[in-house]
Amino acid sequence: MSLLAAAGRFQGRLVLTHRDYLIDLVRTPLLAAVFLLLIRHNDRPDLLANGLLAPVLMGVWSMAMLISGEVVDNDRWLGTLELQIAAPADFARVVLSRVWVTTAISLLTVLEVAAVAILGFGTVPDVPHPGVLAVGLLATAVATAGAATLMAALFVATRTARTFQNSLSYPVLLLGGVFAPLDRLPEWTHPIGRLVYLSWSSDLLRDALAPAAVTSAPARTGAILGLGLLTGAGGRLLLGRVVRLVRENGTVGLR
Amino acid sequence: MTDSRNGTGGLTRPGQGEPAVETRGLRREYRTRRGPAVVALDDVSVTVEQGEVHGLLGPNGAGKSTLMKILSTVLLPTSGNGRVLGHDLATEHRRIRPLLGIVFGGERGLYPRLTARQNLRYWAALYGLTTRNAVARTDALLDELGLAERADDRVETFSVGMRQRLHLARGIIGDPRVLLLDEPTNGLDPLAARQLRELILRLAGEGRTVLLATHDLAEAEALCDRVTMINHGRVVAAEAPRTLARLVPRQERVRIRAEEPLLDLVRALPGTLGTEPADDGTTVVTVDSKEAVGRVLAFVVERGVTEVRTELPGLEEVYLQLVHRGETRSVVNR
Question: Does the ipTM surpass 0.90?
């Protein structure tokens, strides 16, 4: 618990001193404005939930991926990666302890998007199921931290992970139903999409903004958390393997 | 040092009054994409007793940092064995890590945009200190290392000397029993380097074992109980600095203040290997034996030279002879 709190506090301070880490907090309101403008221009108020949720989920995902890479990349550059691996604390726990703060900070995008809708477009988002929305967002943040741990393993393994990460983001967001529900995508994508926690998140969060009753909310929240924890466990396992590998081939501190 | 004590590859088992650091036949290769593997360490056997300040001497690229990385558990050896306080480097790194403090020289190893206090608090958490202990330990170290007044300033505003002291504070935040210092005075001005050396001696005085990688011979001579010289990845010699001088017994020296005609005559004496002017205006005459020393002494005193003394070669000369001649010796005990 001490590591989680201390590393979280540390990462929070680091994010505040590296303002570029907060770029997604700048980008998200602009994205929200674009989506809401398109919805208004095409007179499609039925898509409002999509327009509100897409920038939030993109921001949460993007910020976590950015930081998971930076935790490794920047530390490798500073010479602190080797020292962290040589420290008694489990490195995967260190990464997770640093990333969760970022995903927590990224939830500020919810307030930003709401502000854009209200102040920029005069639209007050209707939230018929605020409890489901809150729990869904928290579960999404937890799952995103798990995915970020997996991504961090990739950054430890290779110094060119950023390109891969950038290429990976849009397929994940697409299969995660962030831009449009998964059932609007070709059928063959559905089984793959259901393995992406974001597809469960986006569906649940959209339903939280719709007037109809939300069905199976606990099970769907469980799916988000389960997939997120599974991804996190995979990330932890992979990180352990990758750290062992870079200790063998001597590339821990290479810049 | 025997190599076949107990079936552990010549290493001491835990609980036997084990050395702080012990390696046997350590080899490290780096694979290259094309061409043969590069051998960074070859058959390196080093023993560092508990409480010892041990120098690891060698030119750049000798393999010092590779050995330090293996000992700090961030690099695995290709072959050979190593133990830290009885724990195996390859299989027991989790037991070793809390016992080690690691300090690299230069700019790397700190978060420049955070304050000294924030840096130390983070590392304290990584070394398992509770919040209360982390606060107390951080405050104590900042005070002890003369950084208390700048504790809440960003590290990027620190001088090189202050950063290096902070590196040292980070290295000992977990109260390690073995301290690995890799070129800790690199880039420091003479005063800051001297202050850091005093700190290292103080830490050693607290009973910690210190392994110091350096290419600064004066530093090794001033700080170390013993030194291991490494060149081209191999141990060239391991001894106390003073004893090392005896590894080159033929290199007795006589320092005299004399003018050139007389020096010409001295050069012609049997057993004289050469002369070299020193910065203080004297001349150092190198001879090949004690007999030759007596011969030079008698010769110059007879001719009225009053400023004359004999001396053993310093660590620098031993280093130059052993390392630069590539002469391999296997003297690994006190």
Answer: no
